[in-house]
Design brief:
422 residues, alpha/beta, FAD/NAD(P)-binding domain, Immunoglobulin-like, 3 domains, 5-stranded parallel sheet, 29 strands, 20% helix
Length: 422
């Protein structure tokens, strides 16, 4: 009979979110913490992200992905947190019990006091964006291309077209160029770039790689290997405009067309997912709709900075510790709603009401000279000016401690034109 393990907490996923959550739970007083990772090493995606740009907020330094991960890995190794590598979680139930498997221990059954979901996200594929054409070799997601070059030492191709201007795609445009490949261009279906401004400058502008906005790939040519793609302009409804087609010869099509939170386990546990983020609905402690199951990082929503992933992980780890220790105290439930030019807000509900809360949100459209505001029942509790807001870049705002009480009905986050500028 398989032995049932009953740790204080189980963290699923050992990328930056899982590492941060496990450490925060340990620092908050939990003794037995299991960190489960399906890969053969800790760090998640960070070991293959050899470019810099990580840690400017958390460490006030500019680090590479491996450097950022290693700082947390070192702490985990010193902390006594039990790590299970090459371990796949097969099932998670609403009572927090789970089943995992690995080659060393076989089947593992666990009944932890709390669970933290930190599985991260995955890339959209060609079939999820419905690109017509044949199925040749040479169509590859940007993250896979990154692993081939940075970890495996392999070049996926020499004449490259990149579809989508997400951050990984922009970074890989530079990486391919540095490795001697020809990047014909980056094609973006939206009328604005999908990546951070710094990546647009450092990865495209600095290397004279063209960015074609309001363009998409309409056909993939080649049966055994990609030979060319047809690209076309799109209208305001993102539909190709007849007569604008152009054939671009290439041997590789790299897709950077968005990320999806990895929530198969969340669904099995009955966790409610938010339609805009694709991740769990959470409160200010990052607890999901299922009691004792917490979530953090890119499994909740896709963040643009790893620093924000770490911040949410620390909140989730502390929240899990409070739950196990019985220190949590609810004082109501207040919805957090998106207002003008806000697509979604995380967290989506507040229940403790007695602490400062950090809010993360994305806007619906680019806008200059604006004011970011948080309103509690119409009363402004946070207001600051922003020179520019863009959909790819997460915006932060806060609710100060003491701004909420049991009679509050709703919190609204909005972006409005700055009156002084107007």
């Amino acid at each position: 009979m398989t032995k049932i393990l009953r740790p204080d907490a189980v963290v699923i996923g050992a990328g930056p979110a899982g590492l941060g959550a496990a450490l925060a739970a340990r620092e908050a007083g939990l003794e037995e913490i299991f960190l489960l990772e399906r890969d053969f090493e800790l760090g998640g995606i960070l070991p293959q992200c050899i470019h810099d740009g990580f840690g400017s907020i958390v460490f006030d330094q500019v680090l590479t992905g491996p450097e950022y991960a290693q700082r947390f890995i070192d702490k985990v190794e010193r902390s006594g947190i039990e790590v299970f590598l090459d371990t796949m979680v097969l099932e998670l139930r609403s009572d927090r019990s789970l089943v995992a498997v690995n080659s060393r221990d076989g089947v593992l059954r666990m009944e932890p006091g709390a669970v933290v979901l930190a599985m991260g996200c995955r890339e959209r594929t060609r079939h999820q964006v419905l690109i017509p054409g044949y199925r040749p070799a040479g169509v590859i997601c940007a993250g896979a291309a990154q692993r081939y070059i940075n970890i495996e030492g392999l070049m996926p191709g020499r004449r490259v077209v990149i579809l989508g201007s997400g951050d990984i795609g922009l970074i890989m445009a530079r990486r391919f160029t540095l490795e001697g490949a020809e990047v014909e261009g980056v094609y973006e279906i939206m009328d604005h770039p999908g990546g951070l401004t710094r990546n647009l400058v450092q990865c495209l502008h600095d290397f004279d790689i063209p960015l074609h906005l309001s363009h998409t790939v309409t056909f993939i040519h080649g049966r055994k290997r990609v030979e060319a793609v047809t690209v076309a302009k799109v209208n305001e409804n993102r539909k190709p405009i007849p007569g604008t087609e152009r054939l671009v010869e290439c041997d590789t099509l790299v897709l950077s067309v968005g990320l999806i939170p990895e929530n198969e386990l969340s669904k099995k546990a009955g966790v409610v997912l938010h339609p805009a983020t694709g991740g769990p609905v959470v409160d200010e402690l990052m607890e999901t709709s299922v009691e004792g199951i917490f979530a953090c990082g890119n499994v909740v929503c896709v963040f643009d900075l790893v620093d924000y992933v770490t911040f949410t992980a620390e909140v989730a780890g502390r929240g899990a510790a409070e739950f196990v220790q019985g220190r949590r105290r609810w004082r109501g439930e207040v919805p957090v709603r998106p207002g003008r030019n806000v697509r979604f807000v995380v967290p989506q509900r507040l229940r403790c009401l007695d602490r400062e809360v950090e809010l993360y949100f994305r806007v619906q459209r680019p806008e200059r000279s604006v004011r970011v505001r948080v309103l509690v029942d119409g009363r402004v509790v946070h207001s600051r000016k922003a020179r520019m807001v863009r959909p790819p870049e997460m915006v932060r705002a806060s609710i100060p401690a003491g701004a909420l009480n049991e009679g509050v009905r709703e919190v609204v986050v909005e972006v409005t034109p700055d009156e002084k500028e107007a």
